[in-house]
Structures are given as C-alpha cells and as structure tokens.
Design a protein that fits this description.
- There is one protein chain.
- The chain is of the alpha+beta class.
- The protein is built from seven helices and 20 strands.
- Strand 6 and strand 7 form a beta hairpin.
- The model has no long low-confidence stretch (mean pLDDT 96).
- The longest helix has 14 residues.
- The radius of gyration is 18 Å and the shape is globular.
- Bound molecules: zinc ion.
- Zinc ion (ZN) binds next to helix 1 and helix 5.
C-alpha cells in the first residue's frame, strides 16, 4: 500500500456548529509526507497540521490551536479522510470552524468518493499495535489491542428512551464506513441548548445539522437514520479524534462512554507509549 491523496480539489460551504459563522472550505491534493494540514486563507495562509499535539479544546468538539490560530470542530472531516485512506491533503478555510453540513460525515464521504483518490509513490507507514494499551478514567475507558486491521467498538449508555444502552463494532473499510458510520449525525439535548449557547457553543446548531433530544423523544420531524444512530456517531467522532495520530493503524480500538477529551488524551498517551507499537510498511505477504 502506498500513500494517497485526493484526485482533485473539493469545495464545501456552510456554517460552523458552534460559531454559527459562515465558512468556505476547499480540500486540495497534497504530496506524500505532507499529512493532513489546515490552511487559514484569511490569516496569510497560516498552516496547522492535524496532530494531537495541537489539541487545544475538547468540550463538545475537538479544536486545534497553534500560535494562537484556531481550527475548530475538526472531527467529522478528519474521520472521513482517515476512513477513506486519504493520507495527505491541504484543507483551506476562510474562518476557524469546519462547516457542520448535515451533522454527519456523509457529505464529505460522498464528495471524496465521487472525486476519487490518487495513489502516490511513497509506501505508506502503518502503526502496528503490539501489546494492549488501556486508558481508564472514572467509569470511562478506551483500549487498543493487536489486530491485522483497524476496527472500532463503542459502548454508550444514556437514560433516554431513544438511546439506552448501545454497542457496536465496525471494521473500518471505506465501504463499511460509508454504509454504517458516515451518515450518523451529531446529537444533543434540548435542555442543554440555552446553557451551551450562553457559553458560546452550538450557535449554528439546528434541526438541519443535529438530532435534538427532548426528555421523551426528539424535536426533529425526520426519523433516525439507524435505530442506533447515536453509538454510530460516537464511532464517527472517535475515528476523527483517532486520526490525529497521523498515520494508519492496525489495531482493535474499543471505547466505553468516552468523549473528545478522553479520545484525544488516549491518542497522545498511545503515541508516547512506544513499547506498545511498532511502525513500518507492510510486508508483501501482508499486502496480499
Ligand atoms: Zn460529532
């Protein structure tokens, strides 16, 4: 397997979920070794690599920051790029929050698949998990175990009639991601909206880009995209935060009742725990 990038530029526009501000975004092809890099065209093309070392805030979204420059709510876009195997891309933005679109990763996934993916010359490096690595914190946990492919399992529990206990494991291939994970939307609770908006959050939130839960059901008049859409969105979010590891990973990742804070702490801790993984290209037998 070799490194990959986009076959051509792709444009999106919309509003940020938290800022409510309009933003135009372009995804551009990039050479091998570039990685995923955000570029603020409104700030002299300042570039910020999608890297766990740049994580600045993890409340209700994942925000990166370098030298005072922010890129907010990166997780849905990074999730789609990672699942589809895009190793290198430049993401141009004219504001600081990635557009929320419909609250899922489906618009990104569909656009990238329609545009196509190009193989580059450089062989792709994989992180191979050699020993289990576990992070636990007050009833929440994330762990990763050795495996020949990447899979994600998530388990959540909410005292809500539409959620309850949900658990799902998905092997991350481009096709399975598109069918099973990408369409799952962001969700939130109506009783929290006022407090969140007072804190400068969810100002772009609407029934067009989120499932809004009431005490007994939801405000949206459309139906859920899956009966367990909530745990699927958690898998989408986890993959987007996990993408901040900066390389493709061979391992079985499991999470229980976690969120952006634990996701990103796990990625940083795993990168530092160098005795738990090795890094290298695939052998010819593995490629077959
Ligand atoms: Zn999300």
């Amino acid at each position: 397997m070799r490194e990959q990038t986009l076959a051509a530029p792709i444009e999106f526009s919309g509003v940020g979920l938290h800022t409510g501000q309009p933003v135009a975004m372009r995804l551009l092809p990039a050479p091998a070794g570039k990685g995923i890099v955000f570029r603020r065209v409104d700030l002299d093309n300042f570039e910020l690599r999608a890297d766990v070392g740049s994580v600045e805030r993890v409340a209700y979204a994942t925000t990166l920051m370098s030298r005072g420059v922010w890129i907010s709510t990166v997780e849905h876009l990074l999730s789609a790029l990672y699942a589809l195997g895009v190793d290198n891309a430049v993401i141009e933005l004219d504001n600081f929050e990635v557009p929320i679109l419909d609250g899922s990763a489906l618009p990104y996934t569909e656009a990238i698949r329609q545009t196509g993916i190009t193989q580059l010359q450089a062989p792709r490096t994989y992180m191979r998990i050699e020993k289990p690595f576990v992070l636990e914190e007050s009833g929440k946990s994330i762990a990763i175990y050795p495996s020949d492919s990447l899979s994600l399992e998530y388990e959540i529990g909410f005292k809500h009639p539409l959620i309850g206990h949900q658990k799902l494991e998905v092997k991350i291939t481009p096709d399975d991601y598109r069918m099973l994970i990408a369409p799952a939307r962001t969700f939130g609770f109506y009783h929290e909206v006022e407090a969140l908006q007072a804190a400068g959050l969810v100002r772009g939130g609407s029934l067009e880009n989120a499932i809004v839960l009431t005490e007994t059901g939801m405000l949206n008049e459309t139906s859920l995209r899956y009966p367990d859409e909530f745990v699927r969105h958690k898998i989408l979010d986890l993959l987007g935060d996990f993408a901040l590891i900066g390389q493709q990973v061979l391992g079985r990742l499991t999470a229980n009742r976690a969120g952006h804070a634990l996701h990103t702490r796990f990625v940083g801790a795993l990168l530092e725990s160098t005795s738990h993984w090795s890094s290298g290209t695939l052998t010819p037998a593995e490629v077959l």
